[in-house]
Amino acid sequence: MRFQGVAPEPRQRPAPRAVLFDLDGTLVRTPIDFAAMRRESLAAAARYGAAVDDLEGRDILAISAVAASRVRDAAAFLEEIEALLQRIELEASCHAVPMPGAPELLAWLAENDLGIGIVTRNCAAAAREALERSGLACELLLTRADVPRVKPDPLHLQIAAEQLGVPPEETLMVGDHPMDVAAGRAAGMRTAGFAPTEAARERLAAEGPDLLVSDLLELRAWISPSSS
Questions:
Q1: Rounded distance, CA 210 to CA 130, Å?
Q2: 33 flagged as catalytic
Q3: Of 43, 73, 93, which one is at a domain's C-terminal end?
């Protein structure tokens, strides 16, 4: 099924010279058990003495950050949390497969000399394993260990653009989660939401990306109108 994309904004800024991607759900499909992550993180926080009743609705990394300020031994707690997150991520990465169109899109971007980066909240080992198993490669990978603050903080994306040598206004951020769109907009970048289902489209549309696509290859025409 093909959705009609959101009309792109007038080209008041230069065409993108670099494209940043989220990893899971955008370039690769990885069966990460986020429910188990949340459940085990909350259980660990409770064992270390933190109140957790108000943490259940937060994302995994937010749970660990807030809980660390409440526990008796923050260093030991964070070490345990990182170990459990890496275990779950690495187990899932062994089953990673490329999203439809991802290999072709990355190849097209490289052929057209556009910078390519991946910004992910995953650990480095899991991200590299997922990319290798999916047959994908890019010039820059920034995981949660590589930056002081991860998305939705825009710093994650700003560091990626700086390392690619491209200003934010000439960078496109592509992701399947509202936080990808929010981070890209806050970083001063144009944003594209990848929405392969109607439910995903509704969730992403609420965040107001510059473009919504159901097929990654649709991005080629928006990045370069003369491409097909």
A1: 28
A2: no
A3: 93
